[in-house]
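Run folding on both entries below.
>entry_1
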Amino acid sequence: MQMPNRLARETSPYLQQHAANPVDWYPWGAEALERARREDRAILLSIGYSACHWCHVMAHESFEDPAVAELMNRLFVNVKVDREERPDLDQIYQTAHQMLAQRTGGWPLTMFLTPEGAPFFGGTYFPKEPRYGMPAFPDLCKRIAAIWRDKRAEIAAQNEQVLQAFARTLPQDVAAPAEFSQSVLRAMLDNLRANFDATLGGFGSAPKFPHPADLELCLREGEKDMALVTLERMCEGGIYDQLGGGFCRYSVDAEWSIPHFEKMLYDNGPLLGLLADAWLVTGAPLYARCAEETAGWLVREMQSAEGGYYSSLDADSEHEEGKFYVWDRDEVRSLLTPEEYAAFAPRFGIERAPNFEKRHWHLRLTGSIERDPLVDAARAKLFAAREKRVRPGRDEKVLVSWNALAIRGMAHAGRVFARPDWIASARRALDFIRSRMSREGRLLATYKDDRAHLNAYLDDYAFLIAALLELMQAEFSPGDLAFAAELAETLLGEFEDAEAGGFFFTGKSHERLFHRPKPGHDQATPSGNALAAWTLARLAMLTGEDRYARAAQRTVALFYPQMRDYPAGFAAMAAALAEQLVPTKLAVLRGRGPELERWREEFAREYLPDALVLVLPDGVDGLPVPLDKPQRPQPVNGWLCRGVICLEPISDLIQLKAACKETP
């Protein structure tokens, strides 16, 4: 019987999936690097994550095969990394792959490194036998080992070129704030418009990803059709789970019909917030229904008893992608009454030709979206039947950054839809992070099995401050503001480049790696630099701390030349730029009793993307100067400021709402 390898001691479910491999795996760390140096071996680095379909395929084909494992163990020091726990390593080596292979990477990522961590060859999935135009993985291993043995001078020369290329990825120029222009925002929106699919929604062709940051920018800047058409088509499509709620990671087709079935926490938090905003703008019941079902899925399936949100659901169950979600027509018919089937089948595509493998159907809306009791009954029956199936695997580690995205989305949707239970869910997740993953303003990135570890990254801090700003609008707590300020201090002290501006992805206390990235582009999640600039500018308004405002401005100034010259992929930074061009409004509502609650509810039903609205009952003490407004005779008073300009207190709700909507 195969003894567990070193990965059995790790918290990552992905690493634990490989604990029984015959491969002599190491987690990333000093032990593996030291052995590679001592024995003068190259490192075989494999990066993936637990919900990754092709990661599972390569594991079954190669890493579980004793002969392949013997070859790997003889030739290399083998290191396995969970890209979700170590996004720093993933960023570096995905970029290296793109430089070396001249094409984008993905997962699994297979990289060969020197003992110092310098990459000299890479790829993604490699089959055990040659196919798909790719070499067999065992043959590749032999070739790379020969290159490492015989061509050290060439590797050293290439490493120098790679280091120079990495240096060029850091922003070189800095703009003066006086150069900031609305034209850059327009250029970004024009770029999105040029790639927009006006019929099917989304940008470009298949595969299609949600890109919440792009949709948020479109909605905020008045390009509502791009955001709303995309969200509507997604809600109608198979990328959305029509029975259980929640969105899959992407659609393999242009119609949003067939997804890659894994569900990621980092998608669903931002999409939940977007659905709430789309409902505010349109009042369309489709957005409200999808928001309710997605929030329900997050609480039901993704929130631990301790409070934190889990990371993802696998695409596979019983070794087949999508098996948990797809249907046989006869099974559907057998579960429903004839009347229910007659109402349900045409609405969800069951009467059309099969749209998935092995003559199966994956549900998507193909008919009316109007509520129908027969359809509701049918959906409930199918959901109950599906719950009895073998479930996809769930990655139960808790990540601060992804939890922050979910907290922000849940708090925002809870405020908009007047759902205190959703706000309470967000609060439980925040309390979990504060109690189990935070020490005096310092965060630990990941938690599982009663163990939090790994120094947190830029995204953890920036995203969590953004979540706190949203939660404070749902229910203000002085403790949340104090926590946000603690995080901001660590963000500045550990991550900021005080000379050039912007923030490194890893802190000063982090281990020294081959490269220290300073990312500005959005990826699957928004840029950490962008969220840092956006949140610090807003936090400066609440606290009066000018250091936050200056750091935010320096960050936008650093990335502005890239945004100006290559206006794509900077949606989150564009939102930070917009608030440098026109400062956010701050509305502070002070008062007492039912009237204050009425004002809270009224403001929650307004789409105000360029405003922070805080409801502070009389008697809240210890507030910073910008929030410390005096008690007045009227039941409620509103103080409205934009930048350094503040209006006189307003005690009329309609007048204050109108003032909040005014454009400068």
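>entry_2
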Amino acid sequence: MNQTERMKELAELLNQASRAYYQEDREIMSNLEYDRLYDELVRLEKETNTVLSNSPTIHVGYEVLSELPKEAHPSPMLSLDKTKDVDALAGWLGGKEGVLSWKLDGLTVVLTYEDGELVKAVTRGNGEVGEVITNNARVFSNIPRKISYRERLTIRGEAVIKYSDFEKINSEIEDVDAKYKNPRNLCSGSVRQLNNEITAKRNVHFFAFSMVDSGGVETPEELKNSFSARFRFLADLGFDVVEYRLVKPDTIHEAVKDFAERIPQNDFPSDGLVLTYEDIPYGESLGRTAKFPRNAIAFKWADEQAETVLRHVEWSPSRTGLINPVAVFEPVELEGTTVSRASVHNISIVKSLKLGIGDRIMVYKANMIIPQIAENKTMSGNLPIPEVCPACGEKTEIRNENGTETLYCVNPSCPAKNVKRFTHFASRNAMNIDGLSEATMEKFIDKGFLHTLDDIYHLDNHREEICEMEGFGEKSYENIIHSIEVSREALLPQFIYGLGILNVGLANAKVICRYFQDELDQVLCASPEELCEIEGIGDVIADSICAYFKDEKNLAEIGRLRNELHFVKEERNTEQDLLGKVFVVTGSLNHFPNRDALKKVIEDRGGKVTGSVTGNTDYLINNDITSNSSKNQKAKKLNVPIISEEDFLNL
């Protein structure tokens, strides 16, 4: 392959990876692999003095594809040049002072305030055109609703979902296949929702990293000249800014080391650092290249790598039929922990790595957290792709989805599908049937008790056999049957979610059922066009729902389930007397059993509950009004009223 052909191949691979990551919220190659291929393309372009028209080295991004309004940025939002060498950072400063800060891994958003009010929020998009998400930004957890500065103010920052919130959201999803892959993907989908109620529930945080415009002629001289002064100015207005540190060439090594040591304890996702000249006029005087500004540079971690041996690959079937490859290798120490497994994601990555059993592979932790395969030194390529499903022994099928090859089990009766499908139906967020764990379901399926979902409601036909099974008894049986009987009084959103329709989560099910006033027949008969009229429901979800309800087998099963269930319409509070009000709840409670109960009352009345006090907060509920807690202190600083439960009940 000559250099030009290789350049064409690299451009296509990199563009495909970027398209998957930025437009479709999925990964088809690791960050390390992307950087390696990108650097190879840059080298070839320099050697040949040729740049292809589709080269990612001259294209910032891709066209946005959502239904949100589009808006051009006043000036292009360029990506940053990057290095993994701390000495290169020191050399780049050239004796100047710089500001070193976290490079957060979320979604870049531009906020504009006028007369102290947030008037516009736009995503980075492709760098030239972004999506208008103003309605969603207003429900970010920590964005000030009003600020004291009255001139026009435009700032850039990163919207992120913290690891703790990410884990909490995933912990509430019992179906493994429905869990989110990483905080960035969850954040991207949350920020770009058409229904900002969904955004609000995701607890999105915004961290400012630069100030673009501060109103012009009245701008204080310090804000025109000092990058760190802009951070202090934004913090005084109530914004959370990225953590930063002033550095010089002789202190930058120590600063980078300090940032790196705190990554394992960080509650927010980051993928490196950003170094910007403290002297703003000097940085701006350097201009920019076609792709990079010259006033800042990104530092990406030189990931610690270890060499090991690939022992085998586990092929794990899921409820949807997708069979995921997981590499199992000799345990190695990485970033202070022992690692022995890494997801390989799909067949395309298996093939690109040319994996084979016994190969010597290099592994690392992406952003010091997620185990990945960096390189295959042996590249034997002898790893067999299973021709039969490891769960049922039936034939598998390789599918090409948007240029990515994935492996599927096409057997509708595959036990792996059924076990997970039955478990999902009985899970807490679906029909909430206690006692029917995945292990129990597996035993009942093996015994032939369960073939379709409605068989759950006839487990009493197998009383004697269940009571005699190992690990069961009369009490266990009675508990399971009682839970099944209780589940017969069902809420429609939980039922729809429990069916396991591809791409339909509980939040989507609630929105759809509310739109159709909890009438199952209307949901069953809805057309794709009708579903797309519902805010937050797009083509992909609409097509999944319609395809599911067009299947005669599915309809027959739903018909049998209807004979077993009585659908109860959820009572919704029509008095929205707290509409638009933002609350924070802290401390112990006296009148409510827990915070979730109080939160539900607030939300039913149109209010919102967030986790931290900001300029956006209307009330902090704390029975210990005089305490010196951090939340109380911040509320007093921002003039947020601190009220007790009694005060709240009297609102």
